Amino acid sequence: MKASALRKKSWGRRVGMLTLVLALGAWANDVGREAPRYGGDLNIGTVYVTLSALSWDPVDWTWKSNHDTGLVREQLFAGDLDRGVRGGGDYTFVAEAYLPTDVIRGELAESWEWQDDLKLVVRLRQGVMFHEKPGIMESRELTAHDVKFTFDLVDSSPKKAQQDYWGYIDELEVRDDHTLVFHFNEFNAEWAYRFGYGYQSSITARELADVDAKDWRNLMGTGPFELTKYIHGNSHIYRRRDNYWDAEVYDGKSFQLPYVDSVKYRIIKDEATYLTALRTAKVDILESVRWIAVDHLKESTPELNWSRWLGMSGNFIALRLDHEPFADPRVRRALNLAVNQREIVELFYGGHAELMAYPQHPGFGAYYQPLEEMPASVQELFDYNPERARELLAEAGYPDGFAFDVQVCSCSPSNMDLLPLIESYLAAIGVEIRIQPMEYASFLSAMTTQTHGPGYFMNNGHTNPTTTLRKFITGHKWNPALISRPEFDAEVQQLMRMPEEADRIALARKLTIDLLDFAPYIWLPTEYVYTAWWPWVKNYAGELRAGAVRPGPIYARIWIDQELKRELGF
To answer: Does domain 33-304+534-567 have CATH number 3.40.190.10?
Structure first.
């Protein structure tokens, strides 16, 4: 009998069984977590379900690299998932690239300590093995020399995130095979993020120097999985490693990780197709579901588990300050006043959005300052006032408006739907926008080469409380408005050197107000996103990232209740 027919016939039995499972699950939580089981395949529509890998080479700085390689390559630090919701804690592990100090654990680093204010000693775990790569390397132990090789490789690349990314480090010393010493020349508030769990800190083997790093077949690492197949635009397949070093403890018993036999990333360009893949259990987890699809999925597929999280990317239209008329702040403010932000929240997003949650994110704790606490000049930018917008345009010399191009990535269904609405708002004040959809690779390349148009509609990650501000300094890769404000740059540099977090919070709040008021973007609401998973996915509570866009440690700890999956007809 086909699975779909079996599902229909067994509806009543499934509801009753799920009730029992939930009851047993609640009972199990009282006496300890259910012991994991091995085997099965985990199919995932990730947060980036529409996007293929951008590069496998660690020197090709791409924000998505840890998502694609993070089951294979590991880092010095990672998120301590036992401190999260699934372990009874409060932290959700959905932040794009932010780990508060109290939820950081050593991954390849066994321990670390400051020997003085500017010398950090990191001791690596012993017995951590690189997996064998036939024709390239035999399985061997990770050493401090591999860590130094990786950092030197990235640091010497002209493609790194920014040219002074590790400028606060004078030297990375290998003291012995398992000890590294980072010699700082000044304190850096992002040190744990930048070289510990960030976008460019995944560790590869020294043998990478002898092969083509761009070829996925040459991906090397110490992680719980090995990439065995990659089909561009279709899938990644990762297979379990039997000699992985890490384990979990349940009721005093150690269980070696990972639990599943394989992890498969499904790359699906079309929203209707990936929602169907979820309903038919072609994917066990769909990490990003737009609010508009949630009610229907809950009705058609009530077995699914859900979590909701506030998007970790700001939405905006960047206005190039080197293009007329955007050098004039009155024009930029006028465009913000012309867009009915509250209507977008209530009608476009159906209330599933926050009016202002960028550049700081509410998940950043005290770094985030609510809109109602902001000065009136900032609050005004989120009010709908087309009359005042027309006045500002007239004052700036554009009483009849103007026209400009806005580029948008066709990979984002939400942006493609929202932009025509913004077009209509701006038309009401005489401003015409010409929408230019682009494929993702071309869209990203246009920004990084600064060949993008005067308007650039994008989503950009909050990253962490300091990087979200650092992206607005002169020359930063993720500065599509091409802002250059020396005074702001200097204050950001001051922020990065502050060792006391209370001081950083105060200055970050001041800089955030200044940035919002400067209005280099048309600021737009931040939407809530949903994650859905089938009930046979165990040891999971909707976590998305245990480092900078790195889900590997999460997937290594998921196990599949294959008996329940069969009971549900799959």
So the answer is: yes
Is CATH 3.10.105.10 the classification given to domain 313-527?
yes
Please say if the pLDDT value at position 30 is more than 50: no
**Cβ(96)–Cβ(160) under 8 Å?**
no
Q: Tell me the average pLDDT of the chain.
A: 91
Q: The pTM is what?
A: 0.87
**Can the peptide bond before residue 258 be classed as cis, meaning omega within 30 degrees of 0?**
yes
User: Which letter, b or e, does each residue of 218-240 get, where b requires 16 or more Cβ atoms within 10 Å of its Cβ?
Assistant: bbbbbbbbbbeebeeeeebbbbb
pLDDT classification of 433: cutoffs 50, 70, 90? very high
Q: Which of 425, 412, 218 is nearest to 315 (CA)?
A: 412
Among 260, 300, 295, CA closest to 281: 300
C-alpha closest to that of 536 among 558, 556, 516, 553 = 558
Instruction: Using CB atoms within 10 Å of the CB of residue 68, give its burial: 0 to 12 exposed, 13 to 18 middle, 19+ buried.
Output: buried
pLDDT for res 62: 76
CA angle 213, 218, 220 (to 5 degrees): 100
What whole-number distance in Å separates Cα of residue 473 and Cα of residue 487? 10
| pLDDT the model gives residue 334 | 98
For residue 15, pLDDT over 50 is answered with no
Which of the four pLDDT bands, split at 50, 70 and 90, describes residue 161? low
Domain with CATH 3.10.105.10 in the chain: 313-527
Q: How far apart are CA 447 and CA 451, in angstroms?
A: 6
* Distance between CA atoms of residues 194 and 97, nearest Å: 10
Check: CB of residue 534 under 8 Å from CB of residue 304: yes
pLDDT digits (tens, 9 = 90+) for 389-418: 999 999 999 999 999 999 999 888 888 999
**CATH 3.40.190.10 intervals, the chain:** 33-304+534-567
DSSP string, 288-352: EEEHHHHHHHHHH-TT-EEEEEE-SEEEEEEE-TTSTTTTSHHHHHHHHHHS-HHHIIIIISTT-
- Give the closest residue to 263 by CA, choosing from 556, 4, 6: 556
Residue 11 pLDDT exceeds 80? no
Q: How far is CA 222 from CA 296, 374, 468, 544, in A?
A: 41, 47, 30, 21
* Neighbour tally for 18: CB within 10 Å: 16
pLDDT of residue 19: 32
Q: Label each residue of 494-550 as H, E or C.
A: HHHCCCCHHHHHHHHHHHHHHHHHHCCEEEECEEEEEEEECCCEECCCCCCCCCCCC
Going by C-alpha positions, the residue among 312, 291, 414 that lies closest to residue 368 is 312
